[in-house]
Records
---
Amino acid sequence: MKIQLNNKNALYGGFVIITILIIITCLIYYINGNRKLSYDYFYKGIYIDGVKVEGLTKKHAEQKIKRELESYYKQTFVKLLYNDKSWDIPLSEIEFGFDAEATVNRGYKLGRSGSWFYRLKTINRLDKKPINLIVSAKYDKVKLIKLLTKIKKEIDFSGSNSTYEYNYGRIVYTSDVSGRKFDLDTNTKLIEARLLNRDFSDVFLEVETVRPTITVDDVKDLKNVLGTFSTTFNSNNYSRAHNIELASKKINNFLLLPGEEFSMDFALGPRTSSNGYMQAPIIMRSRMVSGTGGGVCQVATTLYNAALLSFLEITMRVHHSIPLRYVPPGQDATISEGYIDLKFKNNRDYTICIVSEVKGGNVTIKIIGRKKDGENLRSVLRPVILDQYDPPEPEYVINNGLSNDEIQIRVKERKGLKVVLYRDTYNEQGKLVNSEVISEDIYKPVRGQLAVSRKTYDALKNN
């Protein structure tokens, strides 16, 4: 019985001793832990940019880091290069520097955030596996872009297209010149990547070569007349003749790229006196009235026929309200600024040129291109009148200035027409190989208007 009690006492005593040891160990761990957590300096195992900061205060660590960076990175500018030009960008002008303070603050927070146990775990991990924090660089992007904008103005060049001039069979053309385009966003990112990676070596700027729209290859072989058409006009009618010559110059040597659409309205520009156009007769609602730019429709009509004879794709064309004297019915084209246009598309696989020449009361328009070997087809336009429509009885109006036997024609009556235009194509031997319908036009009849005296008017009315 006594032996049993002694064993129990021994076990109890052992348990108490173990408990006390555990408590003492926990207290020691807790005390040491609190001592570590209350440490005011950098913990062991922390490096900033390769510099050991263990045991330093934040202030001393920042000073040390700055001294190291300043001694290692002594560059004061970055050089930008393009071809034989160079620009020095002072780092001070873009406020470039190292953000040591932010990195020091980040390093100092290691082991000082999270729960009590997490902080101790972090401190112990740093002791076993050190960490190296890299100081980030910073700069003023707005100031860099401002400096690059000035450089852009020096580099950018629009270049120039190849030009082509066909002057009564004599051909002169110039070579094209490529342009340059400095992209701000691309080069800003390029320089930024270098700076933030502490690479201060020379930067070769990225400049895009801009190819001209029309190159010398587009025009050097334009020698063949694909189609030509001429109309005549009264050169003594000064204002109308002036408008025809002006409109002709507007479209002369006009280059049209493959697939590009030509707009006569756009090419002529506003038909205003400030743009050089004069007052001359125009057709409006089947009547001849005065309007600015009268005569340009003759140039449009001449161009329309030349385009048809060149087998270009007509995309917009409207005929006049009455037939014209300088071209057969069905072959005319009218335009009205911002409303009615003549348009056609270059359906060739090469650039073509519109040539318009005015000489001695004639306007001649040619389409210049490149004929392939064996391409010697000839086209002829053939209008066919299918029907004619008589106009209504004339309208009589009173003019008290006329005698009883006088009649003044205010509006000339005209018969209406229905016209189909064919394009006939012949081979070299003169054989018809194709005939196609181009258009079907209807010109409405025009009611005449006659002015007579009051007495004659009353007599006609009573009859």
---
Amino acid sequence: MRCTERDKQRLLRLARGRNTAQKVVLRAKIVLRMTEGLKKKQIAEQLGTSRPTVYLWIKRYEEEGIETLLRDASRPGRTPKTTGEKEKAIVGATLHSKPTNATHWSVRLMAEAEGVSRMAVHRVWRKYNLKPHLVRTFKVSNDPNFVEKVKDIVGLYLNPPDKAMVLCIDEKSQIQALDRTQPGLPMKKGRAGTMTHDYKRYGTTTLFAALNILDGKVIGECMLRHRQYEFLKFLKKIDKETPNELDLHLIADNYGSHKTEKVKAWLKKHPRFKMHFTPTSASWLNMVERFFSELTNKRIRRGVFRSVKELEIAVMNFVNKHNDNPKIFTWTKDANTILSKVGKCKEALGTVH
């Protein structure tokens, strides 16, 4: 059988291609082995196929060329159609109703209710980006000074004052030193790593952190509690580790220990400290929460700690490693955009309720 060098190279690519359909791979291998001088019976035995199959594809190649091997390589099935009325009914039911025996729709419940296949429901939900199985949490702030506080804090993020340092401060409290009750299994191909659902508690610690919005570095310290005494100690640490000639604008939440008389007296004696409090129920305005999220996801959640001391060492190592190559968290939304979105949210909640 005659086979050009060009055909042979293409056959090799088809036979070795990772994305080539398996039936095309088989046909290419049949023709390649024929060009090597093997008999049809040998080819069938080597490839685990029948002799009629070998005869068929050699004959087709000789008569029609290499394209015949690809002719029925992909034969996609017809996508079933869903009528416009039925599609509208599925969307309407998803948005405006609930099943009688559940809190939300599933593909199978909706398919049963609307008399269609579950794949039809899946296609409609994907088309309109509907995800009844997901829910997101939120809380709209009712702070009477919400607008003024948002403009103040966002103004610090977008236009920080000259000769000043803006620090986002907060406490990540109740970080637990947990050890699993049994050793887990390591990750391997085809299987995730494992860890027991239960654990042993060895105590808790609190991380006090101050995030510099300009360079992303964090001033941190672990303490066993988070009262006004610990907060004052942390303020003194900030005072010691920052340039004396700079004013310090501190963005903090409304936790009680931040506003005690002793704290106010200390701040009055240190006028370069200027406090900016976030609105109530608006911790998302404090960028240090973004750092806390990184800490939780990368170091704490899967960590195994057999003492509070071991936990504190791990937390501070994470802080120090972060400061070696700090990541700057950039605030992008201006105050008017945020206030507009919050206004629309309140309007939507008022309409629903």
---
Amino acid sequence: MNRVNQLFGIKYPIIQGGMVWCSGWKLCAAVSNAGGLGLIGSGSMYSDVLEEHILKCKKATNNPFGVNIPLLYPHVETHIQKVINNDVKIVFTSAGNPKKYTHVLKSHGITVVHVVSNLKFAQKSLDSGVDAIVVEGFEAGGHNGKNETTTMCLVPLISKKIDIPIIAAGGISCGKSMLAAISLGADGVQIGSRFAVSKESSAHINFKNQVIEANEGDTILTMKDITPVRLIKNEFYDNIARMYNQKKSIDEIKEYLGKGRAKKGIFDGDLANGELEIGQVSCSIENIFSAKEIVESIITDYRSQLLKVNQDFGL
């Protein structure tokens, strides 16, 4: 059996990214009900809100689901306690050192997965005792690695060195890209951008439509010296780029950023002043579908492409 399917007890090795302002209980439950693994994105939630989403998700699905916890965000300690108290079985951690919390989570029988952007952090994650890793190339949206290593380079590099289940992320949105990731050494895939514009995503319709309208080259990885993030170029980004060109200090840029930029763009739908976090693959997303339709189309496309490859090579 596929190692990711076995680890999580799911039908398909498709994990929905735990994206801030997109990944509430509705999206999480819908993906899990479709046979993948849904994740609640806790990075945009207070701990009592997270608990509410966990409880609603439990009512909406009998299938496995998890919670994504960015370790550099506030409320990490209370988030972890809410996860433990509500008997969540799977936690994905990101944006920080997994060593501090992995043992605590695993001591409560929780399966732990950490997101990495290079081999060094993959090895540190292995040493900390995680059960699997998400290997994320810089094509991915939102907070990202500084090295700009692509998924196609990163997955085979890490799969040669690390012998725990590997989940590829970044630039994956269809069955063809899923097949490519599996061929490179991944056991499964994590998909963010396509689920970000699904019907069940909590993102604002303005944001979803902006993603659908995005063309090649419309996203960029910026603010590497603060917190690297891939977003759609807009007025907010233009102002950031102008400040860098004017040699403004990091403190001045941080002051301009303020707080709540991602919420403003993704959740409130302010396309000018908000941070529109999305991956490069946005240029290939053309419609708003349900999570079930997305999962089914990916699996159908995967099987069709695998058959075609086998036929082309006489296998």
---
Amino acid sequence: MDDAKIKDLITATLESTPKDATHWSTRSMAEHLGMSQSTVSRVWRAFGLAPHKQDAWKLSQDPLFTEKVRDVVGLYLNPPERALVLCVDEKTQIQALDRTQPIFPMLPGTPQRATHDYVRNGTSSLYAALDIASGKVIGSLHARHRATEFLAFLRKIDAEVPADLDVHLVMDNASTHKPRP
């Protein structure tokens, strides 16, 4: 395939959309330019093009956003003396799965083996506080995801951090972080 046809394909991919769809498929682009679907696929792969993928973002409407970002980044880069800065987050709805049979360990020439079937044991929520400076993590698992469990996690942090340190928590605005009015 000559360079002019590749250029036409890339230009059409980046600068146009089909009349009857939101994005090009390999089939529709091949038909549009009179080339094979496999050729379109190879060129897209070679140039890292994926018209079917889309990223999204949201710009903050907070008028103090820039100042808040500077405060948080400054806290990480230059924490106050006698203070601990923790990045707090949670992973909810972790599936607690267990295999129906024991897992056979890996041996030389044989990979680890496990049955394909499993038993569901509900879900768990993992709460974690990362000390960026040391890499230490304070974590706990909870069966539910409510403000009650988050408060228990905060109490755990309080118990594990030396009393002579101030604690700064950096976290999102999840509903579990705020008491109900």
